[in-house]
Design goal:
Rossmann fold; binds BIS(adenosine)-5'-pentaphosphate; binds magnesium ion; five-stranded parallel beta sheet; 219 residues; alpha/beta; three-stranded antiparallel beta sheet
């Protein structure tokens, strides 16, 4: 199954993606996570991407498309994948369609998480991440057992650089102007479903699973 999860910054894409990929045993391909790893490894791509990410702007399409194209052609994607955070522009969506057509594949489902702006701002200011193992927490809804420490690996958890208030505002503007048009794009292809992401993460996941379950007959 080939899935895409969309939504504004902080909508809960990463949280739902982890649950989906565990349940359905498919790789989780997050463009944001890939860039953060490149930044951590201090690669050339990472240095370039970081210039945009810290300002809340999109990384240029050419670099993003090339990074994701390489990832999608790895063997673990042969039986499906979940994309999170890519595509984010119409140009990226066209590039994805072209790549999948070349591989004789297509997306089965696009899940759009709808969340109110107030909740997004609250979620992002409360988010803490572990840069070592990638675990995500929330001081309001999902705090770690020991303050400031990752439950999974014991490293320190931090506020993501781009979760500062001014940067979040920019990311939300960028989402409205450049990414939201993709809702119509996938709706026109008749593969888009809307899920209420304002609910707690377990109830949101139940909704997501219903839609994925509907695909079963088609496989
Ligand atoms: P990316 O990493 O993709 O960030 P984003 O889209 O801004 O989304 P987030 O990761 O911030 O939020 P999320 O929806 O995953 O929410 P999460 O589950 O963590 O991209 C970062 C940057 O990289 C971009 O700004 C751009 O510069 C660049 N980039 C990436 N992809 C690109 C592309 N394709 N093209 C160009 N540039 C690109 O949840 C948020 C918080 O809420 C957490 O604390 C979580 O615990 C909590 N939470 C989640 N769900 C719930 C719930 N249901 N109830 C209560 N709390 C919840
Ligand atoms: Mg994320």
């Amino acid at each position: 199954m080939r899935l895409l999860i969309m939504g504004a910054p902080g909508a809960g894409k990463g949280t739902q993606a982890k649950l989906i990929t565990e349940k359905y045993n498919i790789p989780h391909i997050s463009s944001g996570d890939i860039f953060r790893q490149e930044i951590k490894d201090n690669t050339k791509d990472g240095q370039l991407a970081n210039k945009y990410i810290i300002k809340g702007q999109l990384v240029p399409d050419d670099l993003t498309i090339s990074v994701i194209s390489k990832r999608l052609q790895k063997e673990d994607c042969n039986h499906g994948f979940l994309l999170d955070g890519f595509p984010r522009t119409i140009k990226q969506a066209h590039a994805l369609d072209q790549l999948l057509a070349k591989l004789n594949l297509k997306l089965d489902l696009v899940i759009n998480l709808n969340v109110s702006k107030d909740l997004i701002i609250k979620r992002l200011s409360g988010r803490r991440v572990c840069l070592k193992c990638g675990a995500t927490y929330n001081l309001n809804t999902n705090p770690p057992k020991k303050e400031g420490i990752c439950d999974r690996c014991g490293d320190t958890i931090i506020l993501r650089d781009d979760d500062k208030e001014e940067t979040v505002k920019m990311r939300l503007d960028v989402y409205e102007n450049q990414t939201k048009p993709l809702i119509k794009y996938y709706s026109d292809q008749k593969i888009l479903v809307h899920v209420d992401g304002n609910l707690n993460f377990r109830d949101t996941f139940k909704e997501v699973v219903k839609f994925i379950g509907d695909l079963d007959g088609k496989h």
